[in-house]
Amino acid sequence: MTIRMLRLISQHVFFFILTFSGRLGISLGPSLPCLSCPYVTGCGGVCYLRMLQSPMGGLGMNLAVLFTQRGLQALAAFGLFVVLVALFGQSWCGWTCPFGLLQDYAARLRNKLRIREAILSDRAMFTIKIFKCIFFVYLLIIPVLITLGLAHSDLTLPYCAICPVKLIMPLITGDPTYLNLDFTNSVLLTESVVLIVFSGLVLVGMFFKTRFFCLICPMSLLISLFRPIFLLRLIKEPAACLGCGNCRRVCPTTIDKSAPLSNDLKLSTKHIDAVRGFAKSCQGCFNCAQCCSTEGSLGIKFGPKVIFRASRSYAAKLLKRKSFH
Amino acid sequence: MSFKAALVILFLAWPCAGVSWAGAPVEAIEVMAKAPALVMAEASVATPKAPADLKLAWWSLVKSEHSPFGPYDYFSARLFRLTGPNGPLGPADTENSEKPYPPDHEGPGEAIARKLDDRQNDPQYDQKVDQEGGQKGDQDGLISHKNLIASPLRPNSLQVVLKKSDLTLMGHRPVAAGEPVYIEASPLVHDGAWYVFIKADSQCVIDVLSSLVIGGNTVYAQTKASLYPPKAVSNSPPLKLDRVNWPILTVKSPARAAFRMLAGSKLILEAKDYRQESLMVLDYGSFNKLSVNDSDLIEYFVSDDPLLNLSGYSKSKEIVLFSLLRPKGREAQNPVLVSFSFEVFRNQAIHASQKGAVWLFIVTVVLAFLLTLVYRRRFGLDD
Prior knowledge:
The complex is a heterodimer.
Chain A: H1 3-20, H2 48-53, H3 69-88, H4 91-95, H5 98-112, H6 122-147, H7 158-162, H8 164-172, E1 181-182, H9 186-208, H10 218-224, E2 232-236, H11 246-250, H12 269-276, H13 287-291, E3 298-302, E4 305-309, H14 312-319
Antiparallel strand pairs in A: 2-3, 3-4
Helix pairs in contact in A: 1-5, 6-10, 8-9
Chain B: H1 3-17, H2 28-32, E1 37-45, E2 56-64, E3 72-74, E4 78-81, H3 94-97, H4 108-121, H5 125-139, E5 157-162, E6 167-169, E7 174-175, E8 180-184, E9 194-200, E10 204-214, E11 217-227, E12 240-251, E13 255-262, E14 266-273, E15 279-283, E16 289-292, E17 296-301, E18 317-325, E19 336-345, E20 352-353, H6 354-375
């Protein structure tokens, strides 16, 4: 069984668990490092971004309650999130995220319709990264401002209020509850308008660009902050790289790991990230390692142990297929 | 200030100002009409330190008639205790408890307080209440506690028997009619409080017969509840809903009350001490001590937190526990009567438009799709 097949199975199993298994009484808790949306009725776990914004267990929490039971629960949730991220790193995005699977299916539909995938220019990528940072800062700052009384209380859970997953995932399960314009006040109206427009743009974007939302997903950015402690990681032997560009072509977020690197790691940040396999947009799908046709140039490592090394025969077997995504 | 600067300030201030206005479209009830009615059944019991004759403090059902946003109400509650030297506690004041109380009307707290006063003054009161309860139960079509036979349940478990099918206990599979469901006390349940969440997608009437076994003693509670799907209501009041009374709570120190509301809902809790004894209401989360005197109002904002969700099912709902503790040194005194009432303020989705949202969504998707298809190179999508 190939890594690709394992990933497909993992994605579908987790999609079912995280979307429907709450109806069976299963709950994986509020610390999941993937977009398991709590607004889906019957979901089996909750994305940690929600907890992070929550006034009851996140940045909006009053410091006075930090050492109460609630504060300790919040710390435990954060600790669990860190452990989960440390274990599997960015692979949460590529192997478990339910919204990631939806995006993969959108890409498959595009391929079926023979529409060419959009290739983002460097400038477009830079703009998108700015949006990603804005979203991340927004979800970090607003809860604190609410606690300090400097922001309107209806801005609670600021990112969840505009996250496209909140609208799209319930719609996928047949629940249109969150598809409404809320006229209660200008805060809620603005949030609902932004949610709908943003969701529409993301739907279109994920059709034209594989894993489009991952480029702006703040969860991806949050996970990448813990890069130094990842156990599951991509490794690269720069000296062995021929610069063929296979890795970039099969990468859903178009990360170029085939840059002409030398053994000197004092390169630009982008290249060091590429060498370590920890670029901020990396999904941990390991498509690049599987399709690398240079022996030993790319590999997968868990802790100190190398569990996979790129090989010409393995890549040839996979690249025979029409579409890798 | 230039016109452009004013526009920029307006653009930035508008989303943060919380400006509300009258005349906004009211379609939210239609949006929420597809949400199932939620019913919460709660059993709260005294801790093991309480005297052995008072194992089950109260049992009640709480329903949300329209939606999780809508008004809360509770059903008639009957409380029977088969064991213990004092016999049954007697039924709750069901006639008064099914409707919101006008301000000058005797609420359940006063009614029960009066009954307990009568009970203290009349040595035969327990026996009378026992007979009244049984007869009234028969008249209502409910099974009298005398007809119930203690079943060999497992200790510290709650058995719920639903008399109608098509119901789902949240977190469990659908339950067939008459099928007993055993619910083990989970670590998240505090001090012997069990929660049963029942979801109904259509109008139905259920009989809930529950047996609670604590320390080998079996306590039965039976209630009849009507579940309605949310109704479409137009021109509803914009903010404040009818006052909804919380069921009478007879507590033996210490005990807990719990209620369930939608996240983001605003809650005002009113705690009354009918015996004029000092009580402290502790916010479960922060443990902020709040002194409660007669008619004190505690404003508590129910936040959005999955941590306190006991069922693990409805993640957007909130459960808040308030603890009632009597002052130290007075724990072993007679039961204290506390009546909770709270007002529910409609929060989100009251002034909402689903049609507008659908149109906005469709227009956004179509426009973005066409523009991307036509101008993908100009947008920098083809490098």
